[in-house]
Amino acid sequence: MTKRALITGVVGQDGSYLAELLLSKGYIVRGITRRASYPHTQRIDHLFKQHDDRDPATQFRVTYADLTDSSSLGNVLQEFEPTEVYNLAAQSHVGISFETGESTLDINAIGPFRLLDSIRRAGAKDVRYYQASSSEMFGASPPPQSEATPFLPQSPYGVSKVAAFYLTRMHRIAYGMFASNGILFNHESPRRGLNFVTRKITLSISQIVAGELDRIQLGNLDAKRDWGFSGDYVEGIWRILQHSEPDDFVIATGEMHTVRDFLGKTFGILDLDWEDFVTQTDRFLRPAEVPALLGDATKARKLLGWKPTVGFDELCRMMLESDLAAKGLTLDQAKAKAKLLKPRRRGA
Ligand code: NAP
Ligand code: F7E
Q: How far apart, in Å, are the Cα atoms of 11 and each of 31, 45, 63, 141, 273?
């Protein structure tokens, strides 16, 4: 039987990679997106070119629905009849969640409830449900963090994800649903949102080299994160739903780096000293910080056979190269331009 996957958050970073993966496996994929005043489908436009959605038998289509709108979720479930539901939609920015706490909780915590409840009420007991849980749930719990580590969230985002984690487990326990959590540590890519720290840095470097920006303003440079590649992590997401039983899994690289390390590595690729270009400002500090995240993904390795393929150095290079390419620059051209910049930045 052809598998049918519903992906919420399909226009986001992970949604776009997951859609590619499932289409390559022969799935029929339906994405949902909410209405925006200006269409922002750039991460999946290549999929629209490959799959003509005017064809009734198309493998890929996107429908308007919203995690804050139960009726829209019920409608798409009823009409599409998925065999797997991947709930990736969220207000996913931790810092912004301090400013938009109520809507973050609505989308990230009540949203998954609406979806799980709609699946349950539709009597679709065989549907497999994936919840995008997060290492932010561990918050202030010291590293390394595994499935056994207590949650100590530090932000409205973290609290919302803890609620969704337990709602997913509750539907598994109370109603026997196949509902699983992936507890994913930070994962990045050239498609990462522009205001997450890794992408902000690589995009800014490309702007500095292109002469469009002088300095980057950043907040806490001491935060430690376990950064992996989104393309690897969607493979983990898929494997979680193919497992013989519903369960909760940490997906992580098991390597931890500071924001300073990321700066050192990416500026270093162009032989630049990051300290010449970065201003630390309180503007980007959060009311509470998660100091250190380092995942122990032993369970996923053993039960799912999952492991990351892209390491820290490759991730830094991939993201920087992509942002430079968007400015029409190869790495060698950017290095040549960077040489001219260096004396100017140092005031020589
Ligand atoms: P992302 O790029 O921000 O994508 C999230 C998507 O959710 C966006 O496309 C967004 O649509 C959509 N969305 C937001 N509110 C919605 C609503 N009310 N109804 C329908 N869609 C809505 O995030 P990501 O990095 O791909 O992450 C995917 C999921 O994994 C998220 O749940 C995130 O919290 C979680 N997670 C991410 C990481 C990570 O490091 N990337 C780690 C752990 C967990 P708009 O484009 O319209 O805003
Ligand atoms: O921050 C520090 C910031 O916003 C990383 C989301 O995908 O991963 C992500 O959440 C660190 C933090 O990611 C800036 O304070 C310094 O300590 O890139 P980020 P995040 O908060 O770790 C988790 C697992 C998720 O689930 C989330 O959805 O970098 N930092 N200066 C900065 N961060 C930002 N954004 N901007 C700065 O200027």
A: 8, 9, 11, 32, 35
Name the residue with tokens 């898929």: 238
Tokens read off for 83: 């065999």
Superfamily of the domain at 4-188+227-251: NAD(P)-binding Rossmann-like Domain (3.40.50.720)
Q: 11 CB under 6 A from ligand 1?
A: yes
- Confirm whether 4-188+227-251 and 197-225+257-292+312-338 share one CATH topology: no
Question: Does any ligand 2 atom lie closer than 6 A to the CB of residue 75?
Answer: no
Report yes or no on whether pTM surpasses 0.85: yes
Mean pLDDT to the nearest integer, 192-199 = 98
Q: Quick one: which atom of ligand 1 is closest to the CA of 184?
A: 43
Q: How much is the CA Rg of the chain, to the nearest whole Å?
A: 21
Cβ–ligand 1 distance for 250 under 6 Å, the answer no
d(CA 186, ligand 2 centre) in Å: 8
Domain topology for 197-225+257-292+312-338 = UDP-galactose 4-epimerase; domain 1 (3.90.25)
Is-contact 227 188, C-beta < 8 A? Answer: yes
Q: Which of 9, 303, 227, 252 is nearest to 130 (CA)?
A: 9
CA of 159 from ligand 2 middle (Å) equals 16
Domain ranges of the chain: 4-188+227-251, 197-225+257-292+312-338
pLDDT band at 239 (very low <50, low <70, confident <90, very high): very high
- pLDDT, one tens digit per residue, over 108-143 is 999 999 999 999 999 887 999 999 999 999 999 999
Closest ligand to residue 13's CA: 1
Q: What are phi and psi of 130, to 5 degrees?
A: -110, 130
Distance between CA 180 and CA 166 in Å, rounded?
A: 10
